[in-house]
Amino acid sequence: RNKVQRLPIEKISRSSADQRKGRCGRIASGICIRLYSEEDYKERSEFTEPEILRTSLASVILQMLSLRLGEVNDFPFVEPPNTKMINDGFTLLTELSAVDDNRQLTEIGRQLSKLPIDPRIGRMILAAKQENCLEEVLIIASALSIQDPRERPLDAQQAADSAQKQFVNDASDFLTYLKLWQFFQENAKHLSKNKLRHLCREHFLSYIRMREWQEIHHQLSLLIKESGWKINQVEATYDEIHRALLTGLLGNIAFKSETEQYLGARNIKLYLFPGSGLFKKQPKWIMAAELVETTRLYARYTAKINPDWIEKVAGDLCQHHYFEPHWEKRSAQVAAFEKVTLYGLTLVAKRKVNYGPIDPALSREIFIRGAFVEGEYDCKAAFFQHNHELFHEIETLEHKSRRQDILVDDEQIYAFYEARIPKDIYNGKAFEKWLKKAEGEQPKLLFLSREDLMKPAGEKVTIQDFPDKLLLNGVTFPLTYHFEPGHELDGVTVEIPLTLLNQIPQHPFEWIVPGLLEEKIITLLRTLPKTLRRSFVPVPDVAREALETFKKPIVTFREEGRFLEYPKESLIDVLTRYCHRRLGNPVPKDVWGTLPAHLLMNFQLIDDEPVDMSRDAIKCNACRLKKFRAPVPI
């Protein structure tokens, strides 16, 4: 399951034991002493399991597909392998890009079938052609096809390490092979065979394996030349060599955890082999020529790699997970974050990508909501400006009336655009292109009407109840509205220039605005002591009755617009007098309780920029005096 080569100690079969009994070097009959019991011998299997049932079938499958021998599962093997082994073989060939999703040979697979070597190593050679590093990869591929020529006898380990230290590369064991090859080739040019053998012994190298390495390299080189491939004359870079090698070793990549342990593909845990040149530095990402399980699971013949290479080499083998899709005003497109994994290893944790082509339907919805419902879009089109202004106007009515049942909800606005914008539009660029043509046919296609945005309740909110300007002592003051309980701007705010503050009385502002006056009177009546309040029930009816008797604030129409004008008396004085008449007894002016902030005018002092803000004009005046009395710096 983990694609790991295991090297445990296993018991040989009875047939192998009997065969070895006859190969003891005897020249006549004798006695064979076995180092295990007769019971153990009898419990062993009679024959060794066929190799086809024990090793990877990738090479076999590759040749069968190349020869068009039909379905692998239907082939009449003498010893048929189980389905799992066949599937594992196809999995490896898929990893090497040798077969497609339908288990048919790809062009790479056809080329691999012509190379009489392990498919992994063959894949490296094919990639080396593209990376222009055939010279180096042929040497490494030949080395990986034989048993390691370096020897390390138990009684001379330190001597062997010292003699071979000159070959070690601390970033790549594959480059160690290149150094070893260059050493042997250079000396083979001028040394006799005996001297070359002696040199190999001095450096703890197997002369026979070095010759085998040469022979395999020679055969591969001939094969490459016959194919018409050109071997590079310029030395390849580290990146080129290792990107080529990576194509055959994608299943053997690993990531360094916080401990000395590595996390490999398919969630296996492994360690760097102590004999590796990388053992001391322990790089973050590695690839290994093989994973071998002895007392531990070790990565052997390893190299440091850049994780960016993996995604490019692995291609469709990578899994892409997308999260947090969102609208981006600046780029006018829907973006998301991407996580890229291969065999459970995270290659990219969080990368921003254009989400439109990935999920057009969801991107279209996010585009409409972000660009048009929320208005987060730099659009110069007439409809957009019109809709924005209309939306703001109706939203202002909600702030003025302190109601949230005037503006339609976002879903209705979304439905308006969703019904008109084509299904394949999910970004600003495509929208602008479509809009240019659509407006030529229907100029008002995307124009919202007042009825589209406003619920019927909004028709009751008028400019007479909530004017935008106040006229007091011949001076105009702007009024702004904000509906957010607890916020410092909640209610009605009047902007007063600092220089005019001492010229206007505070008491007219008690009348606030006509649209809030009834609520204010109701609230004031409810602050009366219980003994008095009993005479003013039901309070809302009494408030409306009182309001009918008052000389109320009025909104006048002038050339410059609509203006609010206050009565000359304060609201408290008028309301106190009304209560006196209703009760027949005097009512103290200080009997009234505290009001909520939104029923008190909010004074904002302006001196080129905001200076101070308070619900109490007297405090604002104190701020003014403090400002003007402040010492002038010399």
Architecture overview:
With 634 residues, this protein is α+β, with helices and mostly antiparallel strands. It folds into six domains: 1-48, no CATH class; 54-114; 117-317, no CATH class; 320-361; 363-459, no CATH class; 462-629, no CATH class. It is built from 23 helices and 16 strands. A five-stranded mixed barrel has the order 2-3-4-6-5. A five-stranded mixed sheet has the order 10-11-12-15-16. The protein has a three-stranded antiparallel sheet with strand order 7-8-9. Helix 14 packs across helix 16 (410-418) and helix 19 (514-526) packs across helix 21 (539-549). The protein is elongated, with a radius of gyration of 44 Å.
Task: Give a quick precis of the structure.
InterPro entries: DEAD-box_helicase_OB_fold, HA2_WH, Helicase-assoc_dom, HrpA_C, P-loop_NTPase, RNA_helicase_HrpA. The chain is an alpha+beta fold and 634 residues long.
